[in-house]
Amino acid sequence: MSKIKNVMEMDNAAIFYNGKPVLDKVCCGFRVNAVTGVVGASGSGKTTLLRTLSRLNDRVGGFRVHGQVRLEGHEIYGNGTDVYQLRRRVGMVFQKPVVFPKSIFKNAVFGLKHLAPEMKKEFPQAAERVLREVFLWDEVKDRLHKPAQTLSQGQQQRLAIARTLAVDPEIILMDEPTSSLDPKSSTAIEELIVSLKNRHTLVLVTHHLAQARRVCDDLLFLNEGTVWEQGGCLEMFENPKRKETHEYLSRWNVDEPAV
Amino acid sequence: MKREVVEKSALGVLAILTGTGVLLLLLILGSVIWKGGPALSWEFLFEASSDFGNAGGIYYQTVGTLLLMLGAALISMPIALGTALYLTEYTQSETVKKVLRNLIYSLNAMPTILFGLVGYLFFGVFLNTGVSWLTGMLILAVMILPTLQVSIQEAIEGIPEKYRETGMSLGLDHLAQVRSVIIPHSWHGMITGVLLGLARAAGETAAIMFTATTFSGILLPQSWADPVPTLQTHILVLAQDAVNSAALTKAWGAALILLFIVFILISFSFLLRERLKMEAEL
Predict the structure, then answer these.
(1) Where would I find the H helices in A27-122?
(2) Chain A interface disruption, residue of B156, B161, B170, most A CBs within 10 A
(3) The domain containing residue B22 runs over which residues?
(4) I need a labelling partner for B237 at 20 to 30 A (CA). Which of A102, A160, A242, B224 fits?
């Protein structure tokens, strides 16, 4: 793995739900302007890890974090952390596309409306910029004020990404963003992920090993609630250090949906 | 074979029970319409009552009832919304949630005469609001509070978690989350709660009889401190004291109008709930 600094790190972190450990002794880092894939079997703690990075589990009763989770060197679970500012800096795209029952335009600027209400006059330009960034502008420019629910699932997911981009996060966490999409939409999202890393750091949880191989720079293999291996993506696919990693990643070209 | 007989018998019993309920309801509705129908006229609806209810109409009583209900809704709505938001969005403690929830359900089951008594002692005597529109509004507001609060709380709890999490993930603080995610997605609960609460308040007599209203000699209140005429008291007094059949017909006519108001409120509540719920879930 390259020596470029990590924008976000977990240092000996352990996550508990009602006293039960879900993740343990997690040490990992996420390089700036890189796409880090998080892979592992269902129940290995991938989503928990992702949600921990933006403190989305805070509302969950019995959730506890031990160890350190740092953003640019600052502990995010420490006293004095502005959790709202943290979530703005570390955006999240969910597994299933979530659009509010509002127009496409209002969805695109939903976060901006609250975080920068003084920029109201610039919202149209901001909406156009983020919709272009997710390659959706040409498809929706003539129906910006139509309900967002009229878009296809793939378009809705791109709109959700645009809405996240509008608040300008440094890190974007993606939790299986293509799992509910058809192959064509999945390809569009994959291209988008690659294009976004110029300006953002991305962490992608995925079950599609071929997808991870195509878009990720680094890879993190989770197993039984802990990190078993982390490294450069191709290096881990070609030359994994552990037998378990090899067994898991060797299935990358099996049962892959045709794209 | 035996099982089939048991099932058919059970179905028959259920049908008889349902039929009895529906029949009773139709009988009540039918008798109110039958006896009150002849009283209905333009004058009855839009004229003031006179001669202790023996003559004239129920204009001021209808407007008074609506004023009382509107005031109660305006007072209880922010309290119910605040309580529901506190319980769903701010309180982490399950014990606090449980205690408050039990308290609210208990309040809902309290006999309405108690609301009248305690309300009169607290508002009318202790706060010195007397027999007035204000006392009536406050008592009815407390009375419809549980219905409204439960309805709003259920609507808030029914908001898909995905909307909350999306708001959170964009960095929205609590207030922004409430303003942009919670309230727009729970409108239907609020509207339903208000209308159902008002429908309950509209039928209420005991709680306002000695606290907000007098039977005769009043028009519309000129200030918060004036008593307000209501249909409920009008019906009660006429039904108890009227000696001639014309006055009794007027009492039935007033009952028909009150029933109509309740019917409209309930119909609107169901209609709006379905419509707003569909919009919120789209």
Answers:
(1) 46-53, 83-89, 104-108, 110-115
(2) B170
(3) 1-39
(4) B224
